[in-house]
Structure formats: structure tokens, C-alpha cells
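Hi R.,

Here's the chain you asked about this morning:
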Amino acid sequence: MASFLTFMKSLFSRSRLALLAGLLALAAITKAQTNQTTITTAVPILTLSPDARASSMGEAGVATSPDANSAYFNPGKLGFVKYKYAGSLSYSPWLRNITDDMSLSYVSGYGKIGQRSALSGSLMYFSLGNIDYRTGNNLPNGSFSPVEYAVSVSYGQQLTDNFGVGISARYIRSNLIGAINNNDAQPGNAAAVDLGAYYSKDATIGTGLYNLSFGAAISNIGNKITYTDPQNPSFLPTSLKLGTAITREIDQYNKITLAFDATKLLVPSPYYEEPLVGGTQAERNAQLERIKAENLSRQGQNIVSGIFSSFSDAPGGFKEELKEINLSTGLEYNYNDLLYARGGYFYENRDKGDRQYLSMGLGLRYQVFGVDGTYLVPTGSNSQNNPLAQTIRVSLHFNLNKLAEAFNENGAGGTSGEAPTN
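And the predicted structure, written out as C-alpha cells:
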């Protein structure tokens, strides 16, 4: 990462360099350049929930009720979707307190295959606006529009009435530099898969009616990405997500859902040592070389080794491993499947990136159409200068053919079979 940013300094104006450097370390929004304990990966945009519903619930989504965006969080939920066909379009202006030409767009949809399975497709597209190149004398030297995108295909299967599994395949392209002055930079390309499992069961506790859901997913298991140095590629943001959601049916019109997710990056932790105090210059140099060699060794691990070592390689031991777990929690109020009010909180330890923010949002569903919106409010030690400030997301939804109709012989879906009891 350091060598890549050094290369970038020779190409871009100072203001755009600062912006792009921050984006390259988006998973560690403001600490990645200064905090040696922060984990950085390629294409960190893959770690951010693209839709308004999940982002308004603190990015909790691995066990929430299925919808058109389910495959992003957990393909295991696809077997439980409620409509024959559904689609969603999400958009978020990005870093509006810095620039006005960046955005994150996401389009997704699914179609049921029989009563217990579904096939889904999605496109995530991140535009970094227009970058102006400069010469060493600070003269204009052309421009380029960097983009990152990921195309995914997912399949989910309901194995029993309560349990389902799913898988996603993904192509990722990260083109951040372009060709100028015969530089040796190249777009990064990768292929990855997600694996997910989902369990959902209705229950009566006392006089209350509940739905209990649990989810688990491993995302972005794929090859490393190379931009400039083939000998030092970067890991994708492979991550493990575990979550639960509890829905309480207050009465026939009112429901409330509490969701909680825990997420950990399955990539090597950076190695560091406390600076020597009172040592000689030779000892300090030896320490720097030792740290550099260890980090090169960790980055040189293969994908499988990197995943397994990520549970025990933090220099601070188990206590630091716990700091690498991000927490998401959200609350959703649902009135008659028509109006929704949501709130949530996302927490990342200040030594591991310091992303901490409140989220709030509203939603509306009417017949086949729906809309969700969310707004993020940064908190924590970096709240005054957090690039997530004033971040909004908007999602549109289109839901066609409720399953009770779609799988009836006389229904619009045209597929014979019994209508599901749920």
C-alpha cells in the first residue's frame, strides 16, 4: 500500500491525492494512513452495505428478513424470499463534504425457481469522479475517471422449512489509475465467492408471537489483486459475518425487529512492535527491517493460510483479535407492511479504523413499489472530520407476485404447486 501511494504522488494533484488515498483505505476510513494496527485490503468498498435498509440499521443484514438485496449479505436467505420476482436500485452520493462527482450505485434482483430456491444477480458500481493528472511541474497532464465494480450471481436453496444455504460468484474490477506516461500500473481483477446459511423459525413465547432468525456468511473468498507490484498483491476484504434478528409481532398491524451482526476481516493483521526507547540507531534500523520482513511474509500468504491465520495473528494477542470485530445493531418498526422506521449503530474499534456512526431511516411499501432512505451521523473520536458525514442512501424496490399467487395454478406466476403456509 505504501509503495502504491508513493507512486500516486507523482501523478495527482495534492487535493485529489488525499481523496484517493482515503478511498484506497476506506475500510479504515481515517486511520489507515497513520495507525499501524489498522487492517487494509484492496477494494474496501465491498465491505459497505449498498442498500438503504441495511445501512439505516447499522449495516446489520445477515439475518434480517429476505428482500431483493439479500444476496449481498447472505445468499442463504434467497430461498425464503416472499415474491416470485423482485428488484432494487440503490444510490448514494459519496463524500459530498469533499467532492460532488463520486457515487455508489447498486442494482440487484432475483427470480424464484420453484418454491424453495431463487436465482439472483447484482451490480455494484463505484465511481470516483474525474481525476486530473499533473506533471512534476504541476502542469495539466490529462484526466481519468477511475471506477470499481463487482458483478455477482447468487443461488439460494431452502433445504427445510426453516433452514437454507446459498452461494454467490463474483467478478471484481478495480481500475484506479489508467495509463499515463507509460506507467506500469494496471487495473486489478479478481474472482470471488460467498457462502451463506440462514435459519428462521416462528415461535410463541408466553403470549407473544416471534420470529427468530440466525445467519452466517463468508464473503469475498477470492484471489489477490495487483496494481503495480506483482510480487506484493493485496488481499480482498474476505470477511466472516454472524448475526441474529428477533421480530416481535405486537398485533396484526405492528411489528418490531431487533438485529445484531458481528463481522471480522479474514485477512492477516499488520505486524508491529512498540518503538525502541533508548536503543541505538542500528537497533532501531534492525527493528524496522524485522517489521517490514514480517509484514511482507504475512502479505505473501495464500488465501487459505491468510483466512486461518487471521484468527490468531494480531500482535496484541486475543485482546487485539477482539478489537478486529465490527459490531452492527439495528431496530426496525413495521406498520402493516406499509411504513417503516429504522435506526442503528455501527462500531469499529478506534485502533482498527474508527468507523463509528449512528444511522436512521424511513421506508414505504405500496403494492409493488417501495422506497427506503437513510442518513448517517458519525460519532466517536473522529466525528468532526469523518468522510461518512452527511452520507445518504436511497433504495427503490419493485416486488412482483406474492408467493401465494405466484405458486397457485391460477396465479400470475404460472407455476403449479401448493401455496406456502408462511
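The domain at 2-406 is CATH 2.40.160.40 (Porin).

Let me know if you need anything else.
M.
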